[in-house]
Amino acid sequence: MTHRTHHPGPSRTAAILGLAFAGTLAILAAPAASAKTFVYCSEGSPENFTPALNTTGTSFDAARPVYDRLTHFTRGSTQVEPGLAESWTVSPDGKVFTFKLRKGVKFHAAGGFKPTRDFNADDVLFSFERQWKTEHPYHKVSGGKYDYFADMGLPDDLQAIEKVDANTVRFTLKRANVTMLANLAMDFASIHSAEYADFLAKQNKKEQLDQVPVGTGPFSFVTYQKDAVIRFKANKDYWGPAAEKAQFDDLVFAITPDPTARYSKLKAGECHFVIAPRPADLPEMQKDPKLQVINQPGLNIAYWAFNTQKAPFDKKEVRQAFSMAIDRAAIIKDVYLGAGQPAKNLIPPTLWSYNDKVQALPHDANQAKALLAKAGVKTPLDVDLWYMPVQRPYNPNAKRIAEMMQADLAKIGVNAKLVTYEWGEYRKRMQQGEHMTGLLGWTGDNGDPDNFFFLHGCEAARPGGQNLSKWCDKAFDERLQKARAIADTKERTRLYQEMQQIEADEVPDFKIAHSVVYEVMRKEVSGFKQSPFGSHQFNGVSLK
User: Fold this and answer.
1) Spatial separation of the C-alpha atoms in residues 491 and 505, rounded to whole Å
2) Any residues with CB less than 8 A from the CB of 302 and at least 6 apart, and which?
3) Residue 408: what are its φ and ψ, rounded to 5°?
């Protein structure tokens, strides 16, 4: 789950769409009791509606109703199933993937565009070549940063993407990648309309592709009022099975960053579904007969990254000292309120290849002081400590955690200045490496350990990459690349367990917690399936 914080203002969006927002606000003002409209009180605003440009769950959730991918995850699971590709074959050497595309799939109409043809291979080529080829006419549009595509090594791994015929596409890789089918089910691999892109290019309105999205998904985009509301309508032509189609006419995202306000709206019937409830509110929510509270262990990690390219964090002893200064148990007790477990590895214990033999550094302020002295660091030492301005599924209250860390660091002679920015700006600046230390986290996207470990890979340590420690370790990276090309799960497990030990020894970050993810909906909602990836899908969901 953030590079561009590029929104057209409300007036420009209205001009693009020729739509007024009064109707939207009227829907939100009235209780969402009608079976025609489903209201999701979401926690933040999207940067835009093109997943390839983003890295946050907030933006992915906002675009997901509109798009499909070649492969999908079965709703509520990590299982890969056919999407816009109805079938595929993989060569014995694991390098060539040939996809047979679904016929008769319709694109949405939006923003003055009406499709004249069905989905075909041209749309697949457009969607991937935009990210891959710097000379592509859309590559630099909306900032041209494709972080998932880049950090997962796809620019180097791809040899060719070819249109075999109108309904067949072939991907050829330079090296085998056993995670490919799962990767293509991720949001960054969403398929856009090449015809819509041509339509906009002729009008010199390329930016509109990322602000007024056109896809083949279960809902089509209607309008977005910045920081307030997003509206979608059911796609009556959706190709998917009846159980996965939109079960109501309108889907509304009511953007509500404050968890207390989300809870109030849920109780009042102004929305049907909320994420990230305050842990302190859960007991009351669980007693309310009008609500249903669901939860599952999160496929996630909350961590505190040390920028290893900035002194004194280029020294391992300093990173160890900072880790030993923090009382992890107190954070889990005070902030997670029992809805989290202490983390010692990047991957949660629910994911295969977890290395339980790794020993976390103990909380020991005296030893931390001794390590700083050994590293030649004089105290008092001034550092910055960045914290997110929003709640995340892996971190219910980053500001509170930062304040607790600040107090712990003061005990070893470190003055931590707390810093935050607007969410999109925060991510962008951290990915550029502006921080000394900063809080963030991760929710897995595809159920494969590679999707966590790439966060410490050398490819992702570049400016703009998602390796926020900017840590590049040759022994770690060699194993990462090797594991990606091997189909043998036993051998991959061995490599990943060795990588977890390397991380524990080198301490690029301080691992805080794996959280339990709670979500709350009104009793009349049925058919929602909680995703292991922390994503939210409202197709197949109905209102009783």
Assistant:
1) 22
2) 340, 343, 392, 394, 395, 401, 439, 440, 441, 511, 512, 513, 514, 515
3) -65, -40
For the chain, give me the number of helices (H) and strands (E)?
A: 19, 20
CB-count exposure of residue 415 (10 Å: 0-12, 13-18, 19+): middle
Kindly report whether the global pTM for this prediction surpasses the value 0.85.
yes
Given a cut of 70, the residues of the chain with pLDDT beneath it are 1-35
394: containing domain: 300-517
Residue 166 shares a structural domain with residue 260: yes
- Provide Rg for the chain, Cα atoms: 23
- Candidates 308, 303, 300; CA nearest to 440 is 303
The CATH code of the domain that includes 356 is 3.10.105.10
pLDDT value, residue 20: 36
pLDDT per position as a tens digit, 391-429:
999 999 999 999 999 999 999 999 999 999 999 899 999
pLDDT in tens, 348-398: 999 999 999 999 999 999 999 999 999 999 999 999 999 999 999 999 999
| Domains identified in the chain, total number | 2
Residue 235 and residue 307 in one domain: no
Say how far apart CA 167 and CA 59 lie, in whole Å: 30
Pair 245, 340 in one domain = no
Q: Given the DSSP bridges, would you call strands 273-275 and 37-42 parallel, antiparallel or unpaired?
A: parallel
In the beta sheet, which residues pair with residue 517? 296
Tokens representing residue 487 in the block: 């189909």
Cα gap 413→409, rounded to integer Å: 7
320 and 197, same domain (yes or no): no
Q: Which two tokens stand for residue 230?
A: 């997003």
Q: How far is residue 165's CA from residue 152's CA, in Å, rounded to a whole number? A: 28
